[in-house]
Amino acid sequence: MTSKPPDNTTYSQHLQNKVAELMEEADMERVFKLPSTTFIGGKENALPLKEILNRLENTYCRSIGVEFMFINSLEQCNWIRQRMETPGIMEMEKEQKRLILARLTRATGFESFLARKWSSEKRFGLEGCEILIPAMKQVIDKSTEYGVESVIMGMPHRGRLNVLANICRKPLSQIFTQFAALEAEDDGSGDVKYHLGTYIERLNRATNKNVRLAVVANPSHLEAVDPVVQGKTRAEQFYRGDGEGKKVMSVLLHGDAAFCGQGVVYETFHLSDLPDYTTHGTIHIVVNNQIGFTTDPRHSRSSPYCTDVARVVNAPIFHVNSDDPEAVMHVCNIAAEWRNVFHKDVVIDLVSYRRYGHNEIDEPMFTQPIMYKVIKKTPPVLDKYAEKLIEEKVVTKEEVKDVWDKYDKICEEAYLASRKETTIKYKDWLDSPWSGFFEGKDPLKASKSGVKEETLTHIGKRFSSPPPNAAEFVIHRGIERILKARMQMVENRTVDWALGEAMAFGSLLKDGVHVRLSGQDVERGTFSHRHHVLHHQLVDKATYRPLCNLYPDQAPYTVCNSSLSEFAVLGFELGFSMTNPNALVCWEAQFGDFNNTAQCIIDQFVGSGQAKWVRQSGLVMLLPHGLEGMGPEHSSARLERFLQMSSDDPDYFPPESDEFAVRQLHDINWIVANCSTPANYFHILRRQIALPFRKPLIIMTPKSLLRHPEAKSSFDEMNENTEFLRIIPEKGTAADNSSNVKRLIFCSGRVYYDLTKAREEHNLVDTVAIARVEQISPFPFDLIKQECAKYPNADIVWSQEEHKNQGPWPYVQPRFHTVLNNTKTIGPFVKNSDGFFSRIFSSWSNDGVTKTSLSDQKNTTRSISYAGRPTAASSATGSKMQHLKELKALLDRSFAV
């Protein structure tokens, strides 16, 4: 019975032949009682064997194949059986068939029109799987019937223009202008047309209900958009109070090769049922065109089906022949209902083909000759379905032609309108509009980030107190000690890193700003410093969250340990941050270098999202950073990578004005900081919300400084009259006698504490000044200039713990050069009227110090030298002894006056 069928014989025919061999005709007519696990009988309880086989074959051996037996719920399995096996369940009214034909005509007509007008342009057309458009429409129609009001979609480039045109009803003229080489009216780099997103609210004519549709912009990094969509969906559900996902849902489209080939798909699936990440069911649609670029399916996966990854979350999988539109619609109805009933993921696998190459100028016969000989002979699904409906007398040939001609005329009129346009607007493609956020605001005026002392005290005491029912709620003894130490700090009007963070979060919550902190171990903190969730030591799942109990009318606070994922979780938090600008969304890496497995999200979405897609985000990335002798991993958060991707010009000193700092923030793509005090950390978090716009914030957070006795701040640095300090200047005795200072050291982050300790040991407190650059990018040109001018007789040194080819040095060096060469006078050095400076030659000496030789003493200007570790391929040594030797050497170099 399980032998392989002969060539040119379907498995169904093979099965029938085998059954016929084993059974007499009389057996086929024998009546059998039907078990309760099948629904093929309809109202009948018994059927002849011949009819049983016939009905099962019609259900499972034609256009639809269903994988569901692995689901460990009998209720769910029977639910699927009922919707597959019930006699007549796939029958459709004539009007439904006409609607499918009309939608299929639009999908096919759109691709045909583009091919006719722009034959040599890349557009990644949908030819071969045009049924996707009617399928998506059916999913949306059914879902809106069940109460869904907002659908958020993510998809790769294939078919995107068709989805924008026929699903979202993006004006065709706006799509067509993307094919013309027009200048943009607004700022940004823009992106190719098949990466763009959109947002629209319109009436769904099938259900007569309003529906919001968003297609999230994404790059060619296939499947990278998946977690972004999920985060955006979750956020919209959160802010609507849609705790069951009945009003907001996500739809993800996939290619077959990417679905099984990209690891982020697996990571995203595993968020699907986590309490703080679930979107209560996603409908996945796979455009399965049998080929990944030129890769044969036999070379693209090891599993039987590209959809097998979905089995890990017990998602039912419906494989359906895309050349059978009515079967596709039936599957779409089941998928929408499944999601509505069970709030779990479901997969629709549209088994189709790709009529042309990967793009329209690709020749598929190079690599797939046999397949494409068959494809060339295969008529389009529109022709097949139109012929079927004509035979059934549902439509006439004239009606088919009339529907085609009408849509072609719509396209032609839009094309003529698009030719009158002289510019394009990137904002037309915004996928996350923030209604009312920018209106009425001065884009160069930020609110203050300091708060009243009574607020600090109240939050500090609440955060430092045990649960109200402390007699019943047993907390760990270690936590008791931590809380007592915190309360002592509050009474002394000081904060450490954890307390400063809690005060930033708590004060924002008091102001009605939702705060969300996500990542591995964030509830406790990787270094056991945070403790935002206290656990009852005797009762499972009993917890207390002090920051959720600060004020009776505060905003909600979400702190959640994530799965062991960076790519998907960072993408999720980015999507969450896109939904509401009045929220502080933070992702913390367990260690800073863990961000490298989320590099795709950082490069393609976080760093360049606004430039490409006019999409702002206030996402905060917290990256523990610092070389502390713990080996190459977990030392460096790769600060240099973020700085290299910062968009400020190293050779341009912006005009100085009162709005200098905020204008820099407005113009840059993101903010990169390495704070050295809890107060500055407090301010920079609050500044994220105080700004009249949103920029991603990358913070190098500490490890050893979390408990360093000197890494504490006073309430005086956080009250109403204070703000974030882009630079913390020298405040010791050296600042009081600046003309005696022989060396001015600039540094950033935790190395400051090593430098101050070494300065005391070298007895150089009076002659060496140390300034901390807290905000590295955008570079504080104006404050660096002031600090250099304050010490006219000092050599200027940049000191860092990272290696010379890493850390801030490659970024700050040219910018210091711009500062020092930009100013007419800095101390005793004079810039010539023609702006000439002598050429500076740099050399690397054996002791690791960059020394400068000046070719013309008359025209010299000040320069900056480097003191730190030499270049290296690895981020840190694995030897503790070597680490200590390197640290001593960099400190000695820093103070070699």
TrEMBL record:
Record GO cellular component, one term: mitochondrion
InterPro entries assigned to the protein according to its UniProt record, in alphabetical order: 2oxoglutarate_DH_E1, DH_E1, KGD_C_sf, ODO-1/KGD_C, THDP-binding, Transketolase-like_Pyr-bd
Keyword Mitochondrion in record: yes
GO molecular function term, any single one: oxoglutarate dehydrogenase (succinyl-transferring) activity
UniProt xrefs under Gene3D superfamilies: 3.40.50.12470, 3.40.50.970, Multifunctional 2-oxoglutarate metabolism enzyme, C-terminal domain (3.40.50.11610), TPP helical domain (1.10.287.1150)
Transketolase-like pyrimidine-binding domain boundaries: 495-708
PANTHER family (UniProt xref): 2-OXOADIPATE DEHYDROGENASE COMPLEX COMPONENT E1, 2-OXOGLUTARATE DEHYDROGENASE
Name of protein: oxoglutarate dehydrogenase (succinyl-transferring)
